[in-house]
Amino acid sequence: MRDEFTRRGLLLGGAVLLVTGCTRQASNTADTYAPVTSLPPETPPPETPSGGITYVVVKGDTLAAIGRRSGTTVEAITAANHLTSPRISIGQSLYLPGATAVGADPLANQVTTTEVSPREARAGDTGGGYTLVRRSAWTKDPVEDNNRPMNGVNRITIHHTGEHGAMNGMSETDVLRSIERYHRDEKGWACIGYHYLVGATGTVYEGRPVAYQGAHVLTANEHNLGISVIGNFMDRRPNPIQLAAVDDFLSDQREHYKVPMSRIYGHRELHLSECPGNALFSWVQDYRS
Asked: What 3-state DSSP class applies to 58?
């Protein structure tokens, strides 16, 4: 068990990926760890020899669920249909590249153990613009026993993953798995240190279940919900889809836990760090004001 962690690199496929930005720490002595307004229907591109089908959105659909049901990804659907928002509308036609059919959702009956129930961006709803992917959808690894209970949330801290350019081109789930392996295997933590991570496609990924104290701010992890934005935001803010998801998700969590604006932090305000980057930190300041 270690109290401090400065992320220098991730080991992936035999290559060292340098990581900059967010300095990650375990909590004290343990770590022990750490919808929808609609857009006009998009015109799908024609089917190609590589395969793909057209799907018509029905009430309750989300991009993440459609991806799981068809065997494709949110990133692929977003790119193929030139979407500029995670929000989809009933009756909207989506081209699903590489898909041959849309089956049942394997996570439809999944029971979650997290204390938080953020809403998904479902077609036909009028709530926040993000989709939620539970931890069990991107990893089968359990949370190890070397953790502390959260015992409630009274503050929220924003981070960025600050990954080096060598991680460019990796899928969001591969980024999560790389960070998870580093935190678990190299640092000896219970699992990934963040509670949630927000991707460029407007998808929010559950990292460490909020029932457990995170490992994201040295000596300040108690009752502290850690949200990390996937990317390096020293010089630029997240894209509009990602930033809208951060805004909506943060607002939902703040309302759920009754956290005042004065208790929303950028990582650098609680510990010496450049995280969450100059550009994203300026957004945090704007959000509070």
From this structure: coil
